[in-house]
Amino acid sequence: MASSSPILIYEGEDSTVEVRLDKAQETVWLTQSQMAELFNVKPQNITMHLKNVYQEGELTEESTCKDFLQVQFEGEREVRRKRKHYSLDAVISVGYRVSSARATRFRIWATRVLREHLTQGWTINRERFETNARELEAALALVRKAAQSPELDTTSGRGLVDIVSRYAQTFLLLQRYDEGLLTDPQAQAGGSLPSLAEARAALDNLKAELVARGEATDLFARDRGEGLASLLGNLDQSVFGEPAYPSVEAKAAHLLYFVIKNHPFSDGNKRSAAFLFVDFLHRNGRLLNESGEPVINDVGLAALTLLVAESDPSNKDTMIRLVMNMLANGSEPEG
């Protein structure tokens, strides 16, 4: 197969070898002749050692051997040939059978090169994404400012601008989420949680309304043991004299997450979680932004609740940051 993998130069004590770098698979590739140069042995020796490596089951040929297209000139004629290349694992296995000192030096060099390229690539990608994100956010600020202009006096025009800016902001957060680049946002310190009695009374009122409309049964929001009491207690705890969840955003995100994931009720855990989440924001004056609009609308809340419900527990911290970022961004004034 053809490849655009970069070619690096490895300089040993008495040899210079071209090495193909594969950042995607986090390895380097050499031909048999290059291995022969590296270890200063005849190519036949490399062939013999590779055969033994594979026959003994030390490595599998499928995972450590790949065809790369090589282009070279023979006189004035361009010649293209496929050459078998072997990964770093294969190179080291052969090296230990030939000259372990040379193999060790090469392994140290290859590991350093791989680490540098992978780290630089991740840093560049992150910087590029954040630069694009800042540019998008600046553009959205201009769009929002334009939406306030007297010249844009049609309801449809303002509505379109609002939809574009809101969806773009949500896309930005979800893109950061997908890329694993979400960080904790600037948050509002504090946040008062409801008492157990207050939370229970609010849920009972919700249950009565849903049952009356035929949208719930008597099992809805019925306590399973001390689950709700324990959950609220944990959210209000301190660690070394400091709140374990020090901000409105942190408390709200964990409240939503824990009710969904811990199943403190016999039925209706997702709906109860969404309700307690909204109730908490209302109690702390964070349900609406400075423009009087919901920080998270009904559709967004439903989607977020399902996203948390379907998420893997190992992704808990990322899910929490996603909710916190949505709350923090939704509360900022538009203008």
From TrEMBL:
Record-annotated Fido domain positions: 169-325
Protein name: Fido domain-containing protein
Domain of life: Bacteria
SUPFAM superfamilies reported in the protein's UniProt record: Fic-like (SSF140931)
Pfam name, any one: Virulence_RhuM
PROSITE patterns: FIDO
